[in-house]
């Protein structure tokens, strides 16, 4: 601040108002209280995470020792723990979000909304509590504290943004799930920055000191620049802008953030230089996270993998990556996948549909073609076309038909071990199956070796056309076989939601006994509900027409689909294909009824499906076996 004009009475008044000797001590006191609150919440979440993991492990141990006491909670905690868990789940699970244009507006689940309101209330309490400075400096005090509360949130903003995430590590929540909190912390910072600026500007204006302050102090001009950067950071993360051009969004986001940091550093008053600690800490966290991530990225791509691309039905590409570096990931994890030939500098999140012990250790992805990278890999001439057939991991591997692939990750994945639940329900919509399939494969792989607690597995998959079932038929067959050997019941129910062939069949029509194929001497049946008999009459069945048309029009078809049950059906206890949408309430209720204890539900797909599952689970929670839900949708 320029002190040269100290004899001017207006300047004296301004100096008195700006004197922050006492204000900064009080403001810093509340800035520290903010961190105590944040640490308590992170600590409690970490403890909760540890408790549920221990419970899950103890279930697995008792299941391995004897299969009698499986999904029952430890005696000491008993009913009270169940009641608390149940009430908590009822509160946090529900989600009401617009189902149309979900890429433009997505309302988070109730649990997140409650958390965000608590956060906002906490920050506003810290802002306005004990604001008892009298006189003209009262509004200055409110403004100064708002400034401190803005920068004290900066370390949390960065902690929530990193991909190698410390908060994620201790709380067991993946960085992609923390992203919504990252955005809302930024919005709260914008709110407190607005209070900081608004209260002071209004005060100076009311005393006729506004012009003088702007002319003599460097704080207002640097502050307004920092505010502009913060405002743009918030506006550009709104889904409609963010989704316009994702790569551009990422680059400008990082550059804007650097701009914000520089302006904040210049803005912080020389009278309270120690406040810069709230800027140095996030810079340190950012550099640390970047270093770790770069090291891991370098390791992953030391000997880069090669990707084989296979075009499947329904505008989907199967990407099979052979890499010697990445050998460990948990079911449901995703990586940032980069195929430089199809988008230099681009990396796209893709869920690994395989597990380390399947597909000869290769990473398998199933990617729906959108407008950019995903459509380029789908349409490329080197992409093998297997419409109607089954793509296996033994696809050609010569360098002409394979592509250099760079991998960042893995990230995310299931939080708890689904093998520790008595009954497991896996629900997927379309490519959401990339999340539920590895969970199923993991259960199947461990079924024999570890004697998991799980006894029933139901695999629900909603697809647009019946042809989509070819994406994962060999995997389902394999999983069915392994689970059957271990005495675990697997039911596969496929719902064809918009298949012309099924258009005249009642939506959600239950499978009929007539449509089931039962082996002699074996009680297990495989069913296709819309068809009265199996094998179907090829003359009258519309599916036969589809096959004929395919034969005529698609020279690339390698294997003519036969009119019979998908071949994994013979290995599953019950397999049904039916038209319409799944009746989630009925399905989850049925699983609850079968289970001897808690059930585990995983859902992945469009917001419509995940939000409905959330609501149904919240409604059924406590009315039978307790339900653990893991909901995943491809976006943040
Ligand atoms: C955790 C996660 C896992 C996913 N797993 C799968 C999967 O297994 N199978 C699948 O088909 N899809 C998956 N997706 C979605 C997939 O990443 C996008 O569809 C893909 O990046 C679109 O690329 P594009 O260039 O063709 O997109 P565009 O047509 O340009 O855009 C389509 C949408 O994808 C978003 N998008 C584009 N590039 C990126 C990027 N680099 N990072 C994040 N979002 C981006 C855009 O904002 C837009 O909303 C996943 C997404 C996430 C967040």
TrEMBL record:
The keyword Transferase does not apply. One of its GO terms (biological process) is iron ion transport. Keywords: Electron transport, Glycoprotein, Ion transport, Membrane, Oxidoreductase, Transmembrane, Transmembrane helix, Transport. The chain crosses the membrane at residues 34-52, 107-126, 146-172, 184-204, 224-241. Residues 267-417 form the FAD-binding FR-type domain. PROSITE patterns: FAD_FR. It is found in: Membrane. One of its GO terms (molecular function) is ferric-chelate reductase activity. GO terms for cellular component: plasma membrane. It is a multi-pass membrane protein. Pfam families: FAD_binding_8, Ferric_reduct, NAD_binding_6. InterPro entries: FAD-bd_8, FAD-bd_FR_type, Fe3_Rdtase_TM_dom, Fe_red_NAD-bd_6, Ferric/Cupric_Reductase, FNR_nucleotide-bd. Its main location: membrane. CDD domains: NOX_Duox_like_FAD_NADP. It comes from the Eukaryota. Belongs to the ferric reductase (FRE) family. PANTHER family: FERRIC REDUCTASE TRANSMEMBRANE COMPONENT 3-RELATED, FERRIC/CUPRIC REDUCTASE TRANSMEMBRANE COMPONENT. This is Putative FRE ferric reductase-like transmembrane component. It comes from Hyaloscypha bicolor E. The lineage of its organism: Eukaryota, Fungi, Dikarya, Ascomycota, Pezizomycotina.
